[in-house]
Specification:
The protein has helices at residues 3-44, 67-78, 212-217, and strands at 49-53, 82-86, 89-96, 99-104, 107-113, 120-124, 131-136, 139-144, 149-153, 159-165, 168-173, 176-181, 187-190, 197-199, 202-207, 226-231, 238-244, 248-254, 257-262, 267-271. With 275 residues, it is of the alpha+beta class. It has a 4-stranded antiparallel β-sheet, with no helix packed on it. It has a 4-stranded antiparallel β-sheet with strand order 2-3-4-5, with no helix packed on it. The protein has a 4-stranded antiparallel β-sheet with strand order 6-7-8-9, with no helix packed on it. The termini are far apart. The relative contact order is 0.10. The model is unreliable at 40-45 and 56-62 (pLDDT under 50).
Length: 275
């Protein structure tokens, strides 16, 4: 076989190899790489948004009672001074002379002053599965059902709601937020903004579009709507995450997500925060 023919065969074999490699390996790998990069870019471009979720309180189906069950239920209600149901827990107030005994199911919580029925309330502390806010006329308490610990709050102003962040309680009032440390029992007024949650090194909170004082403090000329802001108190880094026309009144953590509640008690979840 001549050298010329050998070279022709080598070149022909190389061309076949290159065709197979290009067609079945190189091109598919490039397509896959491009698709993977496009997916990464798509995920990175996800915008932070508020998504309405069903209010869990609306999911509670009312059980249909038989006439006999209704009678028993009425007897039970009349045997107590007041009964308050919060999700799966039931609190019972019993009147004894001039004192009110409070039980969570069968467990005694505390003895409180006797006050009118309409001056008694219990609500859940957000971001916590075992904390409750108890209002006994003008006296305010936080009760932890796991540790059976009752803490009195030295506050005379009305409380809108309370949420927990590790060992701290953020107390939202008509005058702004207070921080209560359950370990030291220290209560501190938080002057920087009305309401917030801790998120990593940031505070996240709501700035109303007409809140001139806070817009000025943050050197923000104006915003088009009520704005969800994040702010790092150490680096002074600030950023508007989302603007909305919704009248957002509450902000709290539940699991890994931040939720907002508007003036109509509709619940919204903040999505793509880490994008």
């Amino acid at each position: 076989m001549s050298n010329r023919l050998i070279w022709i065969l080598i070149i022909f074999a190389f061309c076949i190899f290159w065709f197979i490699y290009w067609t079945y390996f190189y091109i598919p790998s490039k397509i896959e790489e491009k698709q993977r990069q496009e997916q990464i870019e798509l995920e990175q471009k996800k915008e932070i948004t508020l998504v309405e979720v069903e209010n869990l309180k609306n999911d509670n189906k009312i059980k249909e009672l038989t006439p006999q069950e209704k009678i028993e239920e009425l007897k039970k209600i009349n045997s107590f001074y007041k009964i308050i149901e919060i999700e799966s827990d039931i609190f019972y107030f019993s009147k004894k002379d001039n004192v009110l005994d409070l039980k969570l199911w069968e467990k005694i919580v505390w003895n409180f002053d006797l006050v009118p029925v309409d001056k008694l309330s219990i609500s859940r502390v957000y971001s916590s599965g075992d904390d409750y806010y108890i209002l006994n006329w003008n006296k305010k308490y936080i009760y932890n059902s796991s540790s059976d610990l009752l803490l009195e709050l030295d506050l005379t102003i009305d409380i809108d709601y309370i949420k927990r962040s590790e060992n701290l309680y953020i107390i939202k009032t008509e005058k702004g937020s207070f921080i209560f440390d359950r370990s030291t029992k220290n209560l501190e007024y938080f002057t920087f903004f009305d309401d917030f949650v801790y998120y990593k090194d940031f505070y996240i909170w709501i700035i109303k579009k007409d809140d001139e004082r806070r817009l000025k403090n943050l050197s923000i000329s104006s915003i088009n709507g009520n704005s969800i802001f994040k702010y790092n108190p150490k680096t002074k880094e600030k950023k508007s995450l989302y603007e909305t026309s919704l009248d957002l009144e509450k902000i709290y953590f539940e699991g890994d997500f931040i939720y907002f509640v508007d003036s109509n008690d509709e619940v919204y979840k903040l999505e793509n925060l880490d994008q």
